[in-house]
Structures
1.
Amino acid sequence: MTLNVTDLSIARGGLPVLEGLGFTLEPGRALILRGPNGIGKTTLLRTIAGLQPPLSGHITGAEDQIAYAAHSDGLKPALTVTENLTFWASVFGASSIEPALDAFQLVALRDRPAGALSAGQKRRLGLSRMLVTGRPIWIMDEPTVSLDTGAVAMFADAVRAHLGQGGSALIATHIDLGLDEAEVLDVGVFKARLPALDDFDEGFL
Amino acid sequence: MIALLMRDLRLAVRAGGGFGLGLAFFLIVTVMVPFSVGPNSELLTRIAPGVLWLGALLSCLLSLDRLLALDWEDGSLDLLATAPLPLEGVVTIKALAHWITTGLPLVLAAPVLGVLLNLPTPGFFWLVISLFLGTPALSVIGTFGAALTVGLKRGGLLLSLLVMPLYVPTLIFGAEVARRGAEDMAVQTPLLMLAGISAAVIALLPFASAAVLRINLR
């Protein structure tokens, strides 16, 4: 269940953004990705989640092990909090949603339609989905957007509990989560150089 | 899989889900036809099977652009693609949910509307049979079109243009079954063709839909 990334090159919209990137994520560890906007953090996470193929390089240990949380939470506004979470629980084969509701203090909101939640409450519901997946590797893209400090602490506790159970987490974020055990990887140093123009392109310049 | 089907059905009947959209459109088209072509009952009898089939096809088309686009917009398509469900299964369930919320109500409403168009008595049975066999193909082909255009904002026009030609065989043979049934002729040949088209698209197109969806999610 160790996630291993070696010599990875990835592209966004046909242009290479990161190259020669490699890291190892052991069970029980967390890795925080940092880097300026547009450097390719989201692209990297989507590639590891299997949503797009890498240009080159290898990713091992990700298949059927990861739970992915994107910028958007994938909530249905017409369904209640419980219905949203129960759906993902049954997709991933989890039995109970109660621990997830507890961890993000959603119990009082459980019968509220997701469309009537505030932005921060929606995000908490989106993050609680990670708990019902039962997957060991969490891949999260800016998980703390629109969370207040209390909710960030809630999230940090959930990640810590997950690490304590032998899980691991790969998180792209700009803020300090207060996870002392987490390593930080600055992806800025892997920025891809612009490829030299080949003869084909030159013909159009 | 069952959870996904139940979620889609539940979403369809909730506020803003668009459950009645296709049915209401079908109703409007068939009710308006006698007003526009006049109350000549012989003429209505002759055009009834074709009008009913065309109405059913257009109402199917109407609800296609929200089939996958809503899941794309709120990000749940990304999450479904990383979930343990095979994407082929996801698009099949999506097509099934679309058929249950759009196709099946049309099949059930068609005989009632056939009365308005003065459809001959033997035609009712074959109209229902032909719609029952043909509308699943409309949903499956439509899901393929929706998967092709999923990344495009306001892709409704492109979707209609892409899907229309693929609907033509189903329309031809479906309307032919209904017409021959209404005129008390042998229906076996178009019926077999219609069933064959439906069986083939249900068997093959989910793989194509899943493949284009994977490419569109990149």
2.
Amino acid sequence: MTTQLPAELGASLDPAGPGTLERLHARLAAAAAEQHLLDVAYRTVDSPIGPLLLAATERGLVRVAFALEDHDAVLQALADRLGPRVLENPSRLDAAARQLDEYFAGSRHSFDVPLDFSLSRGFRLSVLEHLPQIPYGSTESYAQVALAAGSPKAVRAVGSACATNPLPVVVPCHRVVRSDGSFGGYLGGPDAKRTLLALEAA
Amino acid sequence: MGKPPFEKVVAAHGAVVLRVCRAVLGAHDAEDAWSETFLSALKAYPELPDDANLQAWLVTIAHRKAIDVLRIRQRQAVPLDELPARESPLGNPGDGHPEVLDAVGQLPPKQRQAVAYHYLAGLPYKEISTLLGVTPEAARRAGADGVKALRAVLTETGSPASKGALP
């Protein structure tokens, strides 16, 4: 009794032509976005600090992630938090990708895309909302940020707010440094923080 | 940890579903059926139980989408049991062996479906019998007869796909 199709027969039915599945995927992502079926759309972009994952809801950019964070793990976490209807759909992230390119080229000093802060709440959210007010090219200490966010004593909490910033680079937690001038930690690794500060100092 | 991102589902099962759609409908209608299958699946995905068999679920949706297409064809006055072979996809490099797809297209619909769901998607005959509304024995027979017919056609035409593999 035959249990398998002759291998050649199966192979002959394989999807036509290279790129067919890619084309079908793009068509699916476009239709899904148009019908408001996506919880999260994402793409990756190359940058001087490694590949960045960009993810957006319909409200706006919700997550920027470094390769160090493991993009697959980040996507799974987004599916758990925001819903599993997650597809790669570069077009929803065109504006963010373009502005990041301009930022890394030195020609853009602030970002102008809708942001979705639904991954953050409470004091951490207050911290993140303050960060874009630190001007390009300058830094603040964790203590200064604590003061600005309304809780002068919450210096450590500022540190954890920065360490869990879901929108690094775009929400500039890299501009927060230690009072002694040393860099402090960074989600993307110390080299990434150094690169960003050097870029902005140029 | 909940369900994987839907992107993973497309990556893992997209090729199999396309192969099934091509076998059941031919190359021409397969891509529309594929698109409608995954769009429906995306809509229903959040409510799907976490332990569901994704491939069987997708093949079930693809089966329904294919039936819609076959019904439209039937309404166009083509008797379901005597579907003509569809045109080969013309001049498409990397398209495998179009004559195999044509041979599948010449099978009666139930055989074609049984071959696709069992041999391409790995569905057990018990589930196929539910999909096709026949007894498991009839589903098994349809699959076996389908493969036998395919082997015969391919031997006859001396298709490169048949060389070396047949007893």
